[in-house]
Give the backbone structure.
Amino acid sequence: MNMLAQDQIKHFVEKGWCGPLDIFSQSEVAYFKDCLETNSSIKEVDSQPMMMLYNNVLNINTSRDLHLFYKPIAEMFKSPKIVRLLNQLGEPNLLLWNTNVFCKMPGEGEIKWHQVYDSYDPSSYDPQKPALLYPEGEDFLNLTVWVALDDATLDNGCLRFANNTHYKKFQRLQVPAEEGMFAGVKNHKMVWQGRRQYSAVFDFNENEWEVEAVPARAGQVIIFTERVMHCSGANNSNQRRLAINARYVRPSVQIYPHRLQDDFIDENFHNIKRHFCMLVSGQDNFGINVIRDWNNLDDTEVEFHNMSNLVRFGHVELPQGKQQIEIDSLYQQVMEGDCPRAEPDPIQHPRKYIQWQAWNQHKGMSRCEAMKRYSQLISKLPRVDRQKKLPLSEQIKAWLVSYVAELLKIEPDEVDCTVPFERYALGSADAASLTGELGAWLERDLPATLFYNYPNIETLANHLASERPLVC
Ligand SMILES: O=C(O)CCC(=O)C(=O)O
């Protein structure tokens, strides 16, 4: 049974964090990753690939709180392997209230220095709606558990901590959203729904503190208090860096206090009406939060959401025509109820009219029946190969990396996409056969000069991808 040693506890108290700790096995990591990869797709936004995720309890595209719907994610953060370490650091009674996926794709920028000193809203300035309300006089406890799901290295943006900063509250400064602490990370925009004009940075000079970068292997965990200043660098490698964190407080802390006034829109524009906390250890003697062991969706609804994710993330081949309209209208029937009564004008809005007709067919069909029919239809559709869903530049990069690795008899993660081909000692015969095979794979003729004009994997893949429409 792994427990924290005295020196690790001391490290946490003095520096504000501890780790990396060996917690999850490779098979557990594969199980968690499979859940995230099945329920996501990679989209290119401003030429930067980004992992799109969806929360089926909050019904919104977000990287946040996926534990509310996805069992593997809830299991990860309810695991006694983690909870007993938190008990050693804090309290016997703990609520899991928030999780967030941090997927840094190659080329993705930094997350700047930040801390959460009291209320919880690190991404905005002057929060109107703090997510947490602490009882007066109670000492602050908001523990974060950060789990590496890919290896996090100095090159791909591992976490960095400024030791001892958890004893000091740094001033927050308002800046335009595109200069804020999360501006470098495309998918963080999902968290605040791209609607923020302003964000914050902290008046903090890292040169005045002892700073430590903390690489972690997949399955390792870092625990820190939200008060310690932390950040992560840009991903300058060709490897994705996937991580997920969870936050825990005592049951005496009120989560989303504004929901008591029937205000269910949180500071990041998520509708938290169906948000709940999980009591992961001890007991709740306060009764001020919505606490569940698991969400209150029944099996039919869970199946429906899983199937809708296959459609949402392009993991099934959708049919054309009538069956596609039936699928769309069943989805609408489930999510919105019976179709609107007013009949759209068939001349002015022909598509809307066809949809209305199809939706109208399901009038009177119960939500449960619509969910079952939808799930039945989707489960029969052919699956799409996940690899094909990557943006074209990523597919080409992956193809080139594996080709070069095989040719040189090295591991794919030893291939650096920014190193010139000539440094890999690829001769002209190798270049000619690579051009031929790449051309055959891409189904187009490639000029023999390609490797001279685009001298490394990165530039070559980007060039070839820009010559064709993107696969999204
Ligand atoms: O994973 C990252 O890059 C940043 C994580 C972070 O800022 C946090 O967990 O609070």
Q: What stands out?
A: The two ends are 45 Å apart (CA to CA).
